[in-house]
Amino acid sequence: MISGVSGERRAWALMTLLSLVWPVASVAAPANLDQVMAGLAQRQHGHVTFTEEKFLELLDRPVKSTGELLYDAPDRLEKRTLTPKPESLVLEHGIITAQRGKHRYVLNLADYPQVVPFIESIRATLAGDRPALEKVFKVGLRGEMENWELSLTPIDPKIGRTIRFIHISGAHDAIRGVEILEADGDRSLLTIGSEVGK
Description:
This protein is α+β, with helices and mostly antiparallel strands. It has five helices and eleven strands, in the order ααββββββααββαβββ. It has a domain of 119 residues: Clam (outer membrane lipoprotein receptor (LolB), chain A), CATH 2.50.20.10. The protein has an eleven-stranded antiparallel beta sheet with strand order 6-5-4-3-2-1-11-10-9-8-7. The chain is globular and about 50 Å long. About 9% of the residues have low confidence.
């Protein structure tokens, strides 16, 4: 016992000393959907690596591919697959252009409504476009700004017959992963890596 020092002061001194040995972890504030969307909307350009795994019911092992993703606000998204076979997929102004070897395909998204949710889930999230996202999905959010996850469930039952849910994870203003579970049990997992050139 330290003479001449009140119990309250001794407790305060002990807590101060302990905090130097065991730092008190700060409690992270829950993420707010508007905050997450606003952070994403500020990012006008992105160029990152990716790894994608597709888990198909018919196959014992996932199909794996790697490459790069490029994004320019508000609606240009390019996926360059480098392995196992080079190919590119570009979305711009509602038009998808795919290049595989010598073959080139051009598709208007308006003609393929079943594809829109896949594309819009990523495009609208990258753009921080909450209204566009909520036109197609019921949107849930959990976690903190340092580690958040969007849960997207299709509103339209017709889309629900194709997609069960989409989970998009991220930190602050960056997307880190996209998981898509299809109604037939097939699943894809896109993991976003480091920025190219950094």
